[in-house]
Design goal:
Blueprint lengths: L1 H17 L8 E5 L41 H8 L21 E3 L21 H19 L1 H10 L1 E5 L2 H8 L6 H5 L2 H21 L5 E4 L8 H7 L7 H25 L4 E4 L1 H10 L16
The structure holds 2-acetamido-2-deoxy-beta-D-glucopyranose.
The site of 2-acetamido-2-deoxy-beta-D-glucopyranose has 3 residues, from loops.
């Protein structure tokens, strides 16, 4: 008893001396509404989450621009790396020391393709997000110097979430959409994967070295899609088929990139399976939020 409490005290003392030395790593977020933490609040767009019921389970119970009833995936990752949530890149508060936390460049409505989400008007397409990342690095360099800035970016954790909108808000947006007339589904998926690869190579070029890449969720199970496309409320088959084609090819493409770069830079996150777990066995995860809101 006495020994173990001494051990605990020694550990606490050690942690006390170590804690100030370990700065949380920076975190950068790219992608669509699944990871947008409020950039679209600053834009003239119809893709926004700044009014109720968004945010009802958020700590402040206010809509923040997150497309969620509560925290979103980036918030939870920030918690896990013991960091505060990254600010939206367009937030005027993202200055000075806050830059060291990282930044969230995501914008609801966008996709892998430049023509995805055109109906939402003014959104930050992925190549613009990457340009903003470059701009961010210039600002970081002004703050801490070039060498330290490079180190922060190289050691950062990066999350990128793309692809859902290229189906829901492009290929399947309207019957006989331009993209669905241009491509059969398997060819469209191949095209998306090849365009996504270019985006990830650009991200690598900009200094990202540890990148979580999520696949698409079970898009056919999105409430709006079930309402529009299924007879008895079941998950819509065609969109389920789309993610079944997309996700394994994404994993393969990431493996190819890691081989090319001789490092495990890109890590596939199987959001489809995680999501299906919630749907098929909700009790296993405790109390569900009172409502489930998301648009892509
Ligand atoms: C999308 O836009 C970016 C930047 O404007 C451009 O570099 C890229 O080639 C475009 N992609 C396609 C497939 O047209």
């Amino acid at each position: 008893m006495a020994n173990s409490s001494v051990l605990v005290m020694v550990l606490i003392a050690l942690l006390g001396t170590l804690a100030p030395l370990t700065e949380a790593r920076a975190f950068f977020v790219f992608g669509d509404s699944l990871v947008d933490s409020g950039n679209n609040n600053y834009l003239v767009t119809s893709a926004r989450a700044d009014s109720p019921p968004y945010g009802i389970d958020y700590p402040t119970h206010r809509a923040t621009g997150r497309f969620s009833n509560g925290l979103n995936i980036p918030d939870i990752i920030s918690q896990k790396i013991k960091s505060e949530s990254t600010l939206p890149y367009l937030s005027p508060q993202l200055t000075g020391k806050k830059l060291l936390v990282g930044a969230n460049f995501a914008s609801a409505g966008i996709g892998i393709l430049n023509d995805t989400g055109v109906q939402f008007l003014n959104i930050i397409r992925i190549y613009t997000q990457l340009e903003y990342f470059q701009q961010y690095q210039q600002r970081l360099t002004a703050l801490v110097g070039a060498q330290k800035a490079r180190g922060i970016v190289n050691q950062a954790l990066v999350l990128i979430t793309l692809g859902g909108n290229d189906f829901v808000n492009n290929y399947y947006l309207v019957p006989n959409s331009a993209r669905s007339r241009q491509f059969a589904l398997p060819n469209y998926v191949r095209y998306l994967i090849s365009e996504y690869q270019k985006i990830l190579m650009r991200l690598y070029k900009l200094g990202a070295r540890r990148v979580l890449v999520t696949g698409t969720g079970p898009m056919g199970c999105v409430p709006a899609e079930r309402a529009m496309r299924s007879r008895n409320g079941e998950c819509a088959a065609e969109l389920q088929q789309a993610s079944a084609l997309f996700n394994p090819q994404l994993v393969q493409m990431l493996q190819g990139l890691n081989k090319k770069f001789h490092a495990d830079v890109f890590i596939a996150a199987n959001t489809h399976e995680m999501h299906m777990d919630f749907i098929t066995d909700p009790q296993a995860f405790g109390t569900l939020p009172s409502i489930y809101v998301t648009i892509y």
